[in-house]
Amino acid sequence: MKANNVLAAGGLLAGIGVALGAFASHGLKAMLSPYLLEVFNIGVQYQFIHALAIIACGILMTNKVSAKAQKYFFIAAICFIIGIFCFSGSLYALALSGIKWFGPITPLGGMTFMLGWALFVYAALQNNRGE
């Protein structure tokens, strides 16, 4: 549970999100329908938001927090990473391939994002208790 690994993962995923956003804006605009371009951009948006959440988890892990809070911030970061791969990844695949089979994977990523946020709140509350 190293905070620097969490911070590095968040930074990497944020950087990839910026690159994918630029790719969509410049490279895919002429190739995809407006609907599929919007699908791709939603993936980018959620990837970037959750990359920042991963960075927040890493920062909070470096502060003077309880071991229990640190553990749950770490698990929340893992949920955000899984969520990015499932939610954003399925939207990228759907937009680029047009294969609708990827659609059912998206809600699994959304559920993982929600679990991550619940764990984030739990970690914050555990830290307030000094446990």
UniProtKB/TrEMBL annotation:
Give the first-level EC class, as a single word.
ligase
Say which domain of life the source belongs to: Bacteria
Record has Ligase as a keyword: yes
The membrane-spanning stretches of this chain are 40-60, 72-95, 101-125
Tell whether Methyltransferase is among the UniProt keywords: no
Q: Which Pfam families match?
A: DUF423 (PF04241)
Membrane association type = Multi-pass membrane protein
The protein's UniProt keywords, in alphabetical order, are: Ligase, Membrane, Transmembrane, Transmembrane helix
Family per UniProt? Answer: Belongs to the UPF0382 family.
- This one is known as Proline--tRNA ligase
What gene does this protein come from?
Answer: parS
